[in-house]
Design a protein that fits this description.
The chain is of the alpha/beta class. It is globular, with a radius of gyration of 21 Å. The structure holds iron/sulfur cluster (SF4).
Length: 354
């Protein structure tokens, strides 16, 4: 049961603002236990002390050789383990990648997590606490330069959150929605700083359009091919008429929510001799042009011991140039943290459970 529901059971007649005071304290990285929530009474704190202040704890934190990526193996209260990643870009901006499930049922062929199968979905507290974990990590690991700056009291802040870790976020719709609303309410993240990446679970994408409580953060669709058979090979959860149905949904999504700052992104992992030919590029151009304000993000594949191999650099360049030549807005994602298996498709728990 979520902490919020446990609180409501313990204090059924308490005004709603009390829980808000507690939620606010959750996101103060220097507060590490219920005792630190001084905005509520000592008696209330004592009664709350058996509820988990954190639902995740670090089993291991790894740092990449370039020191720009950290991966944490986070143990949940039932002993399951998920991975969460902190990345710093060249501008010093920090992005965290959070998991939404233990394992994943979607079985995408190139993905290490997909090989685990689905163990369970995360509670919203367990998603929120991945953000809190990194907040506290940053607080505890302030760097020399931060300590000597005029802002020495302030740890660097997380500027983006992406739901691209273990699991399919829309297969855990309600918990992800709850976590998104909490992050937007209690951190300085705006909706365009948060991205939910999905393989394209169409019933949930439809639900999202009609759901007034779904916060309109950015959406990235893991497309990987605009050719039906190829996509089905890479993403087995795909089906024959998935692409036209996705295009129809995407047009309605953009009509309802699109603006200059709110676009859709198609993620496209580059797999040698699978989805990287000129014909594949032209199919992607045609698909994008049938929709509108869509961006493409090419992802050089990171080896995970699967059957696929990363496209050659000159093939990626050629693919990129076909898209650019057709005026498709396209980027090529820099691979970060591949030496600690923290890059796209590599999130899988490597350490054994205790
Ligand atoms: S790529 Fe994403 S949706 Fe596909 S198996 Fe991996 S975690 Fe699941």
């Amino acid at each position: 049961m979520r902490r919020k529901e446990q609180f409501a059971q313990l204090f059924p007649n308490t005004p709603a603002f009390r829980w808000k005071q507690i939620e606010q304290a959750f996101f103060v990285p220097t507060i590490r236990s219920w005792d630190g929530v001084t905005s509520i009474s000592k008696e209330m704190r004592a009664k709350l002390s058996h509820l988990p202040w954190m639902t995740v704890s670090a089993k291991q934190v790894m740092e990449s050789a370039k020191k720009d990526t950290h991966k944490a193996l986070l143990e949940l209260r039932d002993g399951e383990v998920v991975e969460s990643v902190l990345m710093e870009n060249a501008r010093g901006e920090l992005t965290i990648c959070v998991s939404s499930q233990v394992g994943c049922a979607m079985r995408c062929g190139f993905c290490a997590t997909g090989k685990m199968g689905l163990k369970r979905s995360l509670e919203s507290d367990e998603i929120i606490d991945q953000y809190r974990f990194w907040q506290q990590f940053l607080e505890d690991n302030k760097r020399e330069e931060d300590l000597h700056s005029e802002f020495s009291a302030i740890a660097p802040r997380i500027s983006n959150v992406v739901f691209m870790g273990m699991g399919e976020p829309l297969a855990n719709y309600e918990n992800v929605k709850d976590a998104l609303n909490a992050l937007l309410a209690w951190t300085n993240l705006g909706p365009t700083c948060v991205t939910v990446s999905t393989v394209g679970v169409l019933p949930r994408l439809e639900q999202m359009l009609a759901d007034k409580d779904w916060p309109h953060v950015r959406v990235a669709i893991s497309l990987h091919s605009a050719v039906a058979e190829t996509r089905k090979r890479i993403v087995p959860s795909s089906y024959d008429d998935f692409l036209p149905k996705l295009a129809d949904w995407a047009r309605r999504y953009l009509k309802q929510l699109g603006n200059r700052r709110h676009h859709l992104t198609f993620e496209y992992v580059m797999l040698k001799d699978v989805n990287d030919s000129d014909e594949d590029a032209r199919a992607l151009v045609a698909f994008v042009n049938s929709i509108g304000n869509v961006r493409c993000n090419l992802i050089p594949y990171n080896l995970t011991g699967c059957e696929y191999v990363r496209s050659e650099d000159d093939r990626i360049e050629r693919f990129l140039s076909i898209l650019e030549g057709a005026d498709v807005v396209v980027t090529c994602r820099r691979t970060m943290g591949d030496d600690i298996a923290a890059a796209c498709g590599q999130l899988v728990v490597l350490a054994e459970k205790k």
